[in-house]
Specification:
By secondary structure, the chain is an alpha/beta fold. The chain is built from 13 helices and 15 strands. Helix 3 packs across helix 13. Bound molecules: zinc ion (ZN).
C-alpha cells in the first residue's frame, strides 16, 4: 500500500533536483548536470530496490525487475526525467516515480510476475537541447535517424554529438534497437494530464486514446537593419512585421482548424530598442486533431507569413524541423488498461491529447498505452503545473492494477 508519505518521500527526492530560482520551477534539461543528478537519483532508487539498471545505446535508463520464474518479453512502464526550461514538477517525473512505487506495491502485495517488469527513464523527451522532442524514444524505434539527430547543435551552438559524448553517450552508437523492442510486450506510461480534461470530468485518472499530430516549424525573416529614428516608415524592410503576422496568423489559423498553434521562441537581431531589426527567427509549434486539419493550419499560416513578407520587402524562409504523425494507442491494450483500472472502482474516462509523449513514439513499435492523472488547472510546462497527492496515489494504484493484469497473469 503506497501512502501519501511514501509517495512524497520518493517524489520529493527527484523534485529537489534542478530547481530553477531564476525562472521558477524546474530546469532539468537533457545532458546537463541537473539531468545527470536526476539520472543518479533514478539509479540509486532502482538499485535500492534491487533492480538491475542499464543504459541503452540512446541514453535511456532501464531498471529491471526479473523475479524468479518470470520469462518472455517484459511489461515496461516509466516516462522521462528531463524538463523544459522552468517546467513543472510532475511532467515526466510522476511517471517515473509511479513506476518505482508500483514495483514496491506489487512486491508488498505478494504479486508474482510471470513476465519481467522494467521502469524506464527516456532521455531528452522534451527536446529542449536537441530541438527534437521524444529524442531517444524515436531513435530507439528508428523514427528519428541518428544522422538527423547528430546534425543538430544546441541553442548555445555546441554540436549535439559533443554534448552526448560529454554526458557519456557514444554518438556512434545512437540508433534503432530492434532487439530491445522485441523484449517489450507492452509499454504503459503514466503522465500528469497537460490540459483540463480530467478536471472538467471530475475524475482522477483517464486512459489515453491517442495523440494529435504535431510539429515544429522554423521561420527566418531577413530585412534591413537601420536607425529607428531616421528611417521613414515607408522605407523600412522590417522583419518584425512578418513576425507579427506570423504570431497573429498562428492564432487565427489554429482556431479555424480546431487546433492549437504557438510561437513561444523568438530571436530578434540585433535586438536593440532603437534599431529596426535586420533579422528575426521564430519557431511555430502547431497541433491539430488530424493530419488534414494540421495541414490546413500550416497552409493558412504559411500564406499569411508570405503575404506579410511580400508587403514589407522582407525575405522569408520556412523550414519543417519535425512533424510527428497522429498516434492511436493500441486498442486492445487500452481496453485491458481500462478494464484493470475499472476493477478498482469506476470505469476511467478516455481522453486524447495534443501533447507528445514517449508512449506515442513507442506506439509505432510495440503495444503502448497511457494513463493520465488529473491536473486541476491544466497548466503544464510551467512552475504552476500541479497534481494533488490523492490523485497521484490514484494513478499509482491504477498503474499497479495494470501491471498486475499485464505482468502477473
Ligand atoms: Zn512529459
Amino acid at each position: 500500500m503506497i501512502t501519501g508519505a511514501t509517495f512524497r518521500a520518493c517524489f520529493d527526492g527527484l523534485a529537489a533536483i534542478g530547481r530553477d530560482p531564476e525562472r521558477g520551477g524546474w530546469s532539468r534539461l537533457a545532458w546537463t548536470p541537473q539531468d545527470a543528478d536526476a539520472r543518479a537519483w533514478f539509479r540509486a532508487e532502482a538499485e535500492r530496490r534491487g533492480l538491475d539498471v542499464e543504459r541503452d545505446r540512446n541514453g535511456d535508463l532501464w531498471a529491471w525487475w526479473r523475479p524468479q520464474g518470470a520469462a518472455g518479453p517484459a511489461v515496461v512502464t516509466g516516462s522521462h526525467l528531463d524538463t523544459v526550461p522552468g517546467g513543472g514538477a510532475y511532467d515526466g517525473a510522476l511517471g517515473v516515480v509511479a513506476g518505482l512505487l508500483t514495483v514496491d506495491a506489487l512486491r508488498a502485495a505478494g504479486a508474482h510476475p510471470v513476465r519481467p517488469i522494467a521502469v524506464v527513464a527516456f532521455a531528452d523527451e522534451e527536446g529542449a537541447r536537441s530541438g527534437l522532442p521524444t529524442f531517444a524514444s524515436r531513435l530507439l524505434t528508428g523514427a528519428l535517424a541518428p544522422a538527423a539527430a547528430l546534425a543538430r547543435t544546441t541553442a548555445d551552438g555546441v554540436p549535439l554529438g559533443e554534448v552526448l559524448a560529454a554526458a557519456g553517450v557514444d554518438p556512434a552508437g545512437l540508433g534503432p534497437d530492434p532487439e530491445r523492442l522485441a523484449d517489450v510486450a507492452a509499454f504503459v506510461e503514466l503522465h500528469v494530464e497537460q490540459g483540463r480534461g480530467l478536471a472538467d470530468l471530475g475524475a482522477p485518472v483517464a486512459v489515453a486514446t491517442g495523440i494529435w499530430p504535431h510539429g515544429r516549424w522554423r521561420l527566418e525573416a531577413a530585412g534591413e537593419g537601420n536607425h529607428a529614428g531616421t528611417t521613414r516608415m515607408e522605407d523600412r524592410r522590417d522583419p518584425a512585421r512578418v513576425l507579427a503576422a506570423a504570431i497573429t496568423g498562428a492564432a487565427v489559423h489554429a482556431v479555424a482548424a480546431g487546433g492549437v498553434a504557438t510561437i513561444g521562441r523568438v530571436l530578434v537581431s540585433p535586438n536593440g530598442t532603437n534599431s529596426v531589426p535586420a533579422r528575426v527567427r521564430a519557431w511555430l509549434d502547431a497541433r491539430a486533431v488530424d493530419e488534414d486539419a494540421l495541414t490546413a493550419l500550416l497552409e493558412g499560416w504559411t500564406a499569411e507569413v508570405e503575404r506579410a513578407a511580400d508587403a514589407s520587402g522582407v525575405s522569408v524562409e520556412l523550414a519543417e524541423e519535425s512533424r510527428t504523425p497522429a498516434v492511436s494507442f493500441h486498442g486492445g491494450l487500452a481496453g485491458q488498461v481500462a478494464a484493470a483500472v475499472a476493477r478498482q472502482g469506476e470505469e476511467p474516462p478516455r481522453l486524447s491529447t495534443a501533447a507528445g509523449h514517449d508512449a506515442g513514439a513507442l506506439a509505432a513499435a510495440v503495444p503502448a498505452a497511457m494513463l493520465f492523472v488529473r491536473n486541476p488547472t491544466g497548466v503544464s510546462h510551467s512552475p504552476a503545473e500541479h497534481a494533488d497527492d490523492a490523485d497521484c496515489l490514484a494513478g499509482v494504484a491504477a498503474l499497479g492494477a495494470v501491471l498486475e493484469e499485464l505482468a502477473c497473469r
